[in-house]
Amino acid sequence: MKSLSNIKSKLLAEQIEEEIFQYIIDTPFGVGDKLPNEFELGERFGVGRSTIREAVKQLISKGVLEVRRGSGTYVVNTMPADLDPLGLQGLADKMTLALDLVEVRLLLEPGMAEMAALNATEEDIEKLTGLCDTVERKIREGEDYIRDDIAFHTCVAECSKNKVVEQLIPVIDTAVLMFVNVTHKMLREESIDTHRAVTDAIAEHDPIGAKTAMMMHMTYNRNMIRKLQKESQQKK
After folding, report:
1. E strand or H helix at 128, and its extent?
2. Which residues of 2-36 are buried (b: 16+ CB within 10 A; e: fewer)?
């Protein structure tokens, strides 16, 4: 029974870890901002201080938080290390980095979607459709969908059946997370519509349709980042 109790505690801590991270992104907290104390976080998420402590410990191990003795817990990064395979989290200008990444995605992902439409199996299409449905549901219900969004784009790349493309998946993973963090999820409806268009075209084995839909998705992303970048420069 003790073992079962430990498993439940670990699962709860992992759930709260994700909720705290989402809270950091949605508030939003910037690098250097101080989090509420354990008691306040426990009240917010409806759990005990020990669960908060374990969740915070996990976020510390992923490079998101830092405990400063006698001062409190601070945000040191908004990109967990396990979702930054390229090691780009240390770059200071996140907006420029996000724009660079989305421009690389514009070069790569429409072609990946085109190949996916040609090569995807029925099993691939079923998986992709499921991910598309999950992202839409989580967006509409206000849940954290970052990992599912990453999984969707990863699945498109895998559907291409190209081994070199599969090696480029870390670029896509980093770019998706960076975009969501920088824009604070401003393109929810556009993401739902273009994800669905990409999925439908791949399911219909329509390479031109898949390439065009992914190009539209990337263009929405690029235009939003450029808009935010311009607004940021005007404030300086």
Report:
1. helix 122-140
2. eeeeeeeeeebbeebbbbbbebbbeeebeeeeebe
Q: Which residues pair with 74 in a beta bridge?
A: 34, 66
Alpha carbon distances (Å) from 5 to 2, 10, 16:
5, 9, 16
C-alpha–C-alpha distance, residues 53 and 36, integer Å? 12
Q: Is 129 left (phi over 0), alpha (psi -120 to 50) or beta?
A: alpha
Predicted structure pTM score: 0.65
Average pLDDT across each block of 10 residues of the chain; the chain has 236 residues. List them in order.
59 85 80 90 92 91 86 81 56 71 89 97 97 94 84 94 86 74 74 96 98 94 85 71
CA distances from residue 95 to 21, 78, 122, 155, 175 in whole angstroms, order as listed:
20, 13, 38, 26, 12
**Cβ atoms 79, 178 nearer than 8 A:** yes
SS3 70: coil
Contact at 8 Å (CB) between 181 and 94?
yes
